[in-house]
Every structure is written in C-alpha cells, then in structure tokens.
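hiii, so i know i said id send this last week but things got crazy w the move. better late than never?? heres the sequnce for the chain we talked about at the cafe, plus the structure i predicted for it. fair warning i was half asleep when i ran it
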Amino acid sequence: MNTEKENLGLIILISCVATIGGFLFGFDSGVINGTVDGLQAAFNADSLGTGMNVASMLIGCAIGAFAAGALADRFGRKTILILTSVLFIVSAWGSGIALSSESFIIFRILGGLAVGAASVLAPAYISEIAPARLRGTLASVQQVAIILGLFSAFISNYYLAKIAGASTTLLWLDYEAWRWMFWIELIPATLFFITLWFIPESPRYLALKGQSTKAQKVLHTLYGPHEGTNIWQAINQQLSTASPSSKKLIFNKNTGFSPIIWVGIGLATLQQLVGINVVFYYGAVLWQAVGYSESDALMINIITGAVSIAACLLTISSIDKIGRKPLLILGSIGMSASLIALVVAFSNGTINSTGQLALGQWGVFALVAANAYVFFFNLSWGPVMWVMLSEMFPNKLRGSGMAIAGFAQWIANFMITLSFPFLLTQLGLSITYGIYATFALLSVVFVLFFIKETKGKTLEQMTLNIA
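okay and structure toks below
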C-alpha cells in the first residue's frame, strides 16, 4: 500500500464523526439507568410498567436497525445518519418533557429508531472508508464511543442527582433532576447533526449506485490517486462479477437464510443473551437491590464505565494484531467464569428485614465479579461483534445483512431488558444470572465452530463462504 499518500488523519477524523452516533447510542442507553426512580414516581409505574419504560426504546432500536440497511442502500449512509441525529435531538427533548408514561414511551421509541440505525450504520460506514489493516481498530472505536456515552450518562446522572439531592427532586427551572438527565443529551446530539454535513458519502455506496466519478473522488481523497485507483478497481471488479441478486443471497425459499446470515444473527443475539445490558440499564436498581444507596449505586456505575473503557482500549490496540476470533473466545470464557462467580455471590446472600438481598461479606466479591464480567465483555463481544458484522458480509449484502443481524440483536436486547424486573422479583438474582451464564458458555461453542477470522482481508475479499 502506498501509505505515504494515504490521508490517515482525514480517515480517522471522519471515523470519529461517525462514532458520535455510537456515543449517543451509549448515552441514550445508559441515561435511563439513573432515571428509573423518577419514572416510577412521575408515572406511578409498577415493575412491569417500569420494565416497559426502560425497554420501550429497544422497540424503536429493532425497527431502526432493520430499516437502516434498506434506507441506507437507497438514500445513502450519510443521509440516514443525518436523519438519526435529528431523531436523537427530538427524543432527548421529548423524553425529558414527557408528562405521562405513554408520551415518554413514544419519545423513547423515536430515540430507539436513532440508536438502532446508528448501531448498524456507524460501523458499516467506518468499515467502508477504513483501510483493511486498520479496519478493526477504527471500527472498535465505535464501542469505545458507546462506552464513553454510557460513562458520560452515568457521570451526568450521578452529579445531577447529587446536586438536586435525588433524581426525583426538583433541580433547575423547577424540573426534576431525572428530566435534566435526558436533556443533557441535546449537546452531543446537536454536535452530531452539525458535523455529519462535513463528511463524505461512503465510496462503496456510491459505487453500488453507479456514481463512479464521485466514488473515485472520495477514494482519491482518502487514499491518494494510486491506492484510490487500486481500491476502485477491486470494488468495480467485484460489483461487475455475475452473482445472484442480494435477495437470493440472503434468503432462499428452499433453504431459508444463507449460512452467513445465520452466523450474523447468532453473533448479534448471543451478545445480548449474556445479559450485559442488565448491568448498564438496571445497574442502579441492581446494586440498590443488594443494599447500596442510590448515590453509591450511581458511583458503582461510574466505576463500571471506567472498566469498560479500559477494556475497549485494550481491544483497539490488539484486534488487528491477534484477530477477532481469539478475542471472542477469551471474552466468552471470561464472561462465563465471572457470571458463575456472581451466581455464587448472590446465592450466598440473605434477605434482610426490609426484604432486600443483603450480600454481607460477599458484596465486595460480587462487585469484583461484576466488573470482571464487564471487562471481558468489552474486551471481546462488545466491540468485536460490531466489527465482524461490519466486515463479514460482501458489499452487496452489507446493508441488508447488518440490518437483519441488528434487528435480531435489538430484539434479544428488548427481551432481556423487559424480563429482568420480572425475573428479579420472581426468581431472584442468582437464578437470573445463572441464565446469563448459560448463554455465555454457549457462546464459547458458537465461536469455536461457526466463526472464521476476518483480520486483514479487504471488504472485496469477503465471500459467502466466510462463515
């Protein structure tokens, strides 16, 4: 590669703009964590209602992820990303101003549309503009942005609740602190909207639409005339090669989904079935359930966010060196061990006079195990799943393949999130986390038998037998 003429600084800058969508993905997902008490008080919600208030965004996420692929293939990656930024702005404002559970759910679903679309399009866009040797690293930045968004939401929630005295207490302009937790998101959402206007359209999308002049211009800007021409020739050669239509490549009436689509669905659903978002969405509720105060629980969330960032930084430095599959295996084994440790801790707790689970001497052990679990997830399945989905599908299938896998991911997310309050009250923490541990063990088997390495391959080298 003629690296002297590669405009790496511009590629990194463009990738960072795209990952603001990941930041908003994380912030919008994590902000709900500190608002559960406020929502219960404002809308008089029971456990099922609380689960719906928290999980409602995920309905929009599933729809947004599924629709994003087709919309991006029709109107362009950049255009749909701009639309998602508008939805983020509307949702942030509306969620904070909502006066009923019904209106709150509507605005959260709108935010979910944005999160779902961003979760699919941001890594896909990065993979389509990044050089093969750095694609894993740059696409992993998406997960760092997600965690930074979660971390920022946790810090914001903590300090807003601390300033007000509690999340349910009035803060500025006579609005409760939990409402301001949502409104803080308006700052990064507006920044996302503005910066998106200055990035180019994906050259591979332009090639798919027959806009060869524009595609080559973008490639020359990013890689220089020599390497840009080489990449254009590879893209053009693949697109001109006779092959079945994308619909037939995705689904056959005789055999169903193609194997690569099933692998994508497996990756996406297992990432959620291990229960990671229970920690992120219900972290404050979880730790209050074992005896911590609201303030202590929100501080634990901040610690968890810091651990997540550290793990993601390790992934960025290693994913293009050791590959995707080894990281997935390591993460699956680590998550399994950590979740089993949490089951042991929770099963050794006792019920105190107020009906809460008290861990006693097992409390510190549970905290360490929970953060170990978060560390292994963000070292592996957190970033690597999105990296693999963004690169494992051939150009003709990338939008549709990621849409299907993204839809499956958010449906699994919705099921886990909605079911947690019920499982917590009916089965207890130990059995609930035992379920998540079982899926973590299954993920080891899945990676060993169904995942093939994609490290170092260009997107044009991805073929249907990759899985």
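btw Residues 206-242 form one domain. thought thatd interest u
miss u guys!!
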